[in-house]
Specification:
The protein has 477 residues and is mainly alpha-helical. 75% of the residues lie in helices and 6% in strands. Helix 1 packs antiparallel against helix 2 and helix 1 crosses helix 12.
Length: 477
């Protein structure tokens, strides 16, 4: 057995990767930053149509759920076409949905435009850009993800008071028109995307002049043991497709009879396997770590989005003036930014296991939300908003990186799509379920209680993943 060098695309950890990070930063801001700031629109739409909290909350929940449900589709489209074309298309769809929604005559039309159409466009922009960032950064990936996600906090800080000003000046319909124009900048982010163009040498094990992958095909008893060792991630320079290709290089001196065994066409099998793996990897379903972590994502999503949607209405219900209520989201956004940068830096230092850091921040986030209904004054709500921002930022900064560590970077793009799909039900039902409790109890504080309980359950699944990792390490030693 000998080793043979192969060129594989390597993450540059810098260079043009900083422009990819900039695209992620803006896309985070114009997607989740806008969703966080939507509480200002929610209050106005709720009163304009004279509907219940539950019905009005479906607008943002449909948008968030659409982002997650369409994520696997966005991954497949970016693999088949290119990241750039998919993101540009998504930006146009997103802007169109928001602009058309400004002319909605009822809530059902808002569900379709600002909810479904807008969320569909955001999914086509967010998912391919995040997978591109993961390909450009390896050693600095935790910090890069944290830095990109700060766009959510910065845009929330700017957009919340801006939306309130635009609503006061032009009504919520005029503000939506302006927002639709801003979302055209998503197309600019797509233009910045391009494939990785840095290579490094890796060694592929050879035996008797043939790659192990080839030998494993000819020997069905050993195919499973070698297939995982010989997969490589390569980037197609022509259209920045992400494909998983086998480490298969048949030497020219190998005779046709050695390659073309009876009833076996190796080339066709490799091509078929490559096409299948390019879009979907069903082995993720049997990956216990991934499935348990996805349950964390589902319950976390139940608690993530309701607080941002209901914070401004809760403050208004406590008699706080509208611009002070909007300022609470700005306070949250500033501390969210600090939490993402600082705790992302801590994660990059690898002082503790990243899964343990994520568990701690999720538990603290749940505690903060459970305490929120006890507050009533602006000072108390400002303190809660600040604490919520820090721990929420720390949570969001690392949860995608933890996923990449659990499944490996060669499966990250597909795993991200599946993860987002599983989370989608939590995103869809989180705000409406919280709204149902609010309608039943006539108190916005009930929505925060529901979110806190959901995050506590999510933390339990993280503890399970941590225990599974520990047992895996013990068994390996």
């Amino acid at each position: 057995m000998d080793l043979k060098a192969h060129n594989v695309r390597a993450a540059p950890d810098g260079g043009y990767g900083w422009f990819i990070l900039l695209s992620c930063f803006v896309i985070y801001g114009l997607s989740f930053g806008v969703i966080n700031s939507f509480g200002v629109f929610f209050f106005e739409i709720h009163h304009y149509f004279g509907t219940t909290v539950t019905r009005a909350s479906w607008i943002s929940s449909i948008a968030v759920a659409a982002i997650h449900v369409i994520a696997p589709v966005a991954s497949a489209l970016s693999a088949h076409y290119s990241h750039r074309s998919v993101v540009i298309t998504g930006g146009l769809i997103c802007s169109l949905g928001t602009v058309v929604g400004a002319f909605a005559r009822n809530l059902n039309e808002l569900y379709v435009t600002v909810g479904l159409l807008n969320g569909f466009g955001l999914a086509l922009t967010w998912t391919p850009t995040m997978s591109s960032l993961g390909l450009y950064f390896e050693k600095r990936r935790p910090f890069a993800n944290a830095l990109a996600s700060t766009g959510e906090g910065i845009f929330t800080f700017v957009l919340t008071p801006l939306f309130q000003l635009l609503i006061d000046s032009y009504s919520w319909r005029g503000a939506l028109l302006i927002l639709g124009g801003l979302q055209l900048n998503l197309c600019v982010c797509g233009i910045l995307l391009r494939p990785v163009n840095v290579t490094r040498d890796v060694n592929c094990e050879m035996e008797d002049g043939l790659p192990l992958k080839l030998l494993s095909i000819n020997n069905s008893e050993h195919s499973k043991s070698h297939s995982l060792e010989t997969e490589e991630l390569r980037i197609n320079n022509r259209s920045d497709k992400v494909t998983v290709e086998a480490c298969l290089e048949i030497p020219k001196e190998t005779s046709d009879s050695a390659v073309k065994a009876p009833g076996l066409n190796i080339t066709k099998r490799v091509e078929l396997g490559t096409r299948i793996l390019r879009y979907v990897d069903f082995t993720l379903i049997t990956n216990a770590h991934f499935m348990v972590y996805s349950m964390f994502g589902l319950f976390a999503a139940l608690g993530y989005f309701a607080p941002a949607l209901y914070l401004v209405p809760y403050a208004r219900s406590q008699g706080i003036e509208e611009y002070q209520a909007a300022a609470l989201m700005s306070i949250y956004a500033v501390l969210d930014l600090c939490g993402r940068v600082f705790l992302g830096w801590v994660a990059n230092m690898r002082l503790i296991k990243m899964i343990q850091q994520l568990t701690a921040t999720v538990i603290m986030l749940a505690i903060v939300l459970l305490l929120c209904p006890l507050t009533s004054s602006f000072i108390e709500l400002a303190a809660i908003s600040a604490a919520y921002g820090v721990v929420y930022g720390g949570t969001v900064a690392v949860h995608i990186t933890v996923l990449a560590e659990l499944v490996g970077i060669h499966k990250f793009r597909i795993a991200l799509g599946f993860y987002m799909l599983i989370r989608s039900s939590g995103c869809l039902f989180g705000p409406p379920v919280a709204g149902l409790f609010i309608d039943m109890m006539s108190d916005y504080g009930a929505g925060f209680l529901m979110s806190g309980v959901a995050l506590m359950i999510a933390a339990v699944f993280l503890l399970i993943v941590n225990q599974m990792n520990r047992r895996g390490m013990e068994s390996a030693t």
